[in-house]
Write a structure and sequence with these properties.
Elements lengths: L16 H4 L18 H19 L7 H16 L4 H6 L7 H8 L4 H16 L8 E11 L13 E6 L2 E14 L2 E10 L5 H15 L3 E5 L7 H10 L2 E5 L4 H7 L6 E7 L9 E13 L6 E11 L15 H5 L4 H9 L11 H25 L1 E3 L6 E3 L6 H16 L14 H4 L5
Parallel strand pairs: 1-5, 5-6
Antiparallel strand pairs: 1-3, 2-3, 3-4, 6-9, 7-8, 8-9, 10-11
Helix pairs in contact: 2-3, 2-6, 2-12, 2-13, 3-13, 6-7, 6-12, 11-12
Length: 433
């Protein structure tokens, strides 16, 4: 008996052929089977990068894998509740004591922690990096500090403008890729100084390249608008967009007219050693409708564009899209606020301790971005090609799933009581106990 054919004469495969070839039959009537994210998978994925990170950050003294796993669970529980390890252990039935956990974390080594964190961020983001050049943004992040210096000659903090009642802060530099509406932190480094901007920028750019990032445009804060940094970036051949630091004289020079325009500017070395650096200036004029601060009239946004580009090569950074492109860098500030929701609390002065905590918070945010792409994205027609349903997985939802999974492992204390009787003084005060 031959194979059945349809009206067009195409052969229809007999029953059981798909199973013979090892193919799975479609489910749900040929539709895509929905993927479900569970709390156990969230914990498993978090431990997949946190446990090697913690192991590689410690000194040569060896600790049991079970102990490091329980400390990792306590650290994740503290991050999920934005609390300290002491508070996380106080609400857990099982796990190492608070003192034992602190003794283990005291063996963190600054150089090993920095290297392990760099490798962990690299491995986490590498599978999701686009093969084409992407835009990246570099920014500084400072966490306020209210304590004293470990070594007065070489303090572990930097002096900043007074904020939240202190002028001291731990300083870090991060590099994020900005593409298709989402951000991933690829590099994080601790800084014990406010100067040496070129060295800090060189380190994070090198970390990004080793992770496999092909840099398209580089967005920098106005703090990087210096001759030393821009001259070095010109030799690197990067396309850079940075706002100008303007005084009253320069504002009068650029702030005129009602239409956006392109001009040129020469940046001179304040030390008189290097040759003048030519820059292309984009003056973007926007009209304020009173939506912010009740202001009306023209608003002038002035950016310096670097990359060996002439006035004719406007396709690299279009004039009218300069502000829209640079606005992507503002997302780093939002990512800091989101990451601080998962930052464990501590009053420790240890540099590697705080670096590990900030790394955990940023990597949890990276995991949240990746999980949203995997579980809440849908294909759509249009230039974007996808739609991200953000309401399905908020960052608070991810932390809640992580907390529920860890609570099954460590347990949760649901009762509070004191075995000793209350003081008799309360009865003398007239309180009925």
């Amino acid at each position: 008996m031959g194979v059945k054919t349809n009206r067009r004469g195409a052969g229809l495969a007999p029953k059981g052929k798909d199973k013979a070839e090892g193919k799975k039959a479609p489910t749900h009537g040929g539709r895509h089977r929905p993927r479900i994210l569970t709390d156990r998978e969230v914990r498993h994925r978090a431990l997949a990068w946190l446990l090697p990170l913690l192991t590689a950050s410690l000194s040569r003294r060896k600790f049991s894998p079970k102990l490091l796993r329980r400390i990792s669970d306590l650290l994740l529980r503290a991050a999920a509740r934005h609390s300290s390890i002491a508070r996380a252990r106080a609400r857990s039935k099982r796990g190492p004591s608070e003192r034992h956990s602190q003794r283990v974390l005291e063996h963190l080594v600054r150089r090993k922690t920095q290297r392990a964190l760099t490798l962990a961020l690299r491995e986490q983001a590498r599978p999701f990096l686009p093969p084409h050049p992407v835009d990246v943004a570099v920014d500084f992040h400072e966490t306020p500090y209210y304590g004293t210096a470990i070594d007065r000659a070489h303090p572990q903090y930097v002096k900043t403008k007074e904020e939240r009642g202190t002028h001291r802060a731990y300083r870090y530099v991060t590099l994020d890729i900005v593409t298709h509406g989402f951000r991933l932190t690829v590099a994080l480094r601790y800084l014990d100084h406010r100067g040496r901007l070129r060295a800090a920028l060189r380190d994070v750019l090198e970390d990004a390249r080793k992770a496999g990032v092909r840099i398209g445009r580089l967005y920098l804060d106005r703090e990087f608008y210096t001759y030393e940094v821009l001259n070095w970036l010109r030799h690197e051949g990067l396309t850079v967009v940075v706002p100008l630091r303007l005084g009253s004289r320069q504002r009068k020079r650029w702030e005129h007219g009602q239409k956006s325009y392109v001009s040129e500017h020469t940046l001179k070395d304040s030390k008189g050693r290097g040759a003048p650096l030519p820059l292309r200036i984009h003056v973007v004029v926007r009209y304020q409708m009173g939506e912010r601060f009740g202001k009306h009239g023209c608003q002038y946004l002035i950016y310096a564009v670097l990359g060996g580009l002439s006035l004719d090569a406007r396709h690299e950074v279009p004039l009218r899209k300069t502000h829209e492109l640079y606005r992507r860098r503002f997302g780093i500030e939002s990512s800091y606020r989101i990451a601080h929701q998962a930052l464990p609390r501590t009053c420790a002065r240890s540099i590697p301790w705080r670096l590990l905590y900030l790394g955990v918070a940023l990597m949890l945010e990276n995991e949240w971005v990746i999980l949203r792409l995997q579980y809440t994205s849908e294909g759509r027609q249009g230039p974007g090609g996808m739609d991200l349903r953000e309401e399905l997985l908020r960052f608070e939802d991810l932390l809640e799933l992580l907390f529920l999974s860890i609570s099954r492992v460590l347990g949760t204390i649901h009762v509070v009581g004191n075995p000793k009787p209350p003081p008799s003084r309360l009865k003398r005060w007239g309180m009925s106990l």
